Amino acid sequence: MIQIKLLASILSCNFLKLEEEIKDAELVGCDMLHLDIMDGHFVPNITIGPDIVRQIHKATKLKLDVHLMVENPSFWSEKFINAGAYSITVHQEADYHLNRLINSIKGKNTRALVSINPATSPILLEYILEYIDGVLIMSVNPGFGGQAFIENSLKKIEYLSKFKYLHNLEFVIQVDGGVNLDNIKSLIDAGADEIIAGSALFKVNKSEFVKKFKELTRVTI
């Protein structure tokens, strides 16, 4: 049986109660923490750096899925690996030497994923898919939480799921942005393996959300 994983995106949590929010996500059964790293250049927002990630790593048993929404990700990737990242996601749009960067991340025994923005075609990933551990489909324009899901993101998930099957590859498909209990089933049906939830998780009763998520997962598989 395929296990669909739920990743809690801390971008939407109450940062005045960060440790408490993380402990709650761990307690209710989230599989990983998703950390959005923004530099104010690649996206119009600024979040956290390696020192905060290092402290989060010490405060939780959950693996850290670090999404670098930054210019020059090759400069930052090792810093976040050293801070405790289990996964590093870099943007196709942000690095001219993507193959080299992916190999560098994987060479440090870290899961390596590539993300694409809403206007980027997954076809551009064709020659990197055999080398990576996953693709992150951004289903909103990156930078801020709480946005509405962009519906044609489903086509990207379906394309990647079919490509994976036809070429016998094993990369995971992640989805982030506008995820909620109304569209999770359609995401999984399209081929998503890892669902990233922010506002839909942290702005409601987390335990109830995870319970309903797992019910949807059982029905879908």
Automatic annotation (TrEMBL):
PROSITE patterns assigned to the protein according to its UniProt record, in alphabetical order: RIBUL_P_3_EPIMER_1, RIBUL_P_3_EPIMER_2
The protein's annotated pathway: Carbohydrate degradation
Active site positions: 36, 176
Record keywords: Carbohydrate metabolism, Cobalt, Isomerase, Manganese, Metal-binding, Zinc
Record-listed E.C. numbers: 5.1.3.1
Enzymatic reactions: D-ribulose 5-phosphate = D-xylulose 5-phosphate
Gene Ontology CC terms: cytoplasm
A molecular function GO annotation: D-ribulose-phosphate 3-epimerase activity
Domain of life according to the entry: Bacteria
Cofactor(s) this protein cannot do without: Zn(2+); a divalent metal cation; Fe(2+); Co(2+)
Cofactor: how and how many bound: Binds 1 divalent metal cation per subunit.
Uppermost EC category: isomerase
GO BP of this protein: pentose catabolic process; pentose-phosphate shunt
InterPro entries: Aldolase_TIM (IPR013785), Ribul_P_3_epim (IPR026019), Ribul_P_3_epim-like (IPR000056), RibuloseP-bd_barrel (IPR011060)
Ligand binding (a divalent metal cation): 34, 36, 67, 176
Pfam families in alphabetical order: Ribul_P_3_epim (PF00834)
Positions that bind substrate: 9, 67, 143-146, 176-178, 198-199
This protein's record includes keyword Manganese: yes
PANTHER family: RIBULOSE-5-PHOSPHATE-3-EPIMERASE
HAMAP family: RPE
Function: Catalyzes the reversible epimerization of D-ribulose 5-phosphate to D-xylulose 5-phosphate.
Family: Belongs to the ribulose-phosphate 3-epimerase family.
Protein name listed in UniProt: Ribulose-phosphate 3-epimerase
Annotated source species: Desulfurella amilsii
Gene encoding the protein: rpe
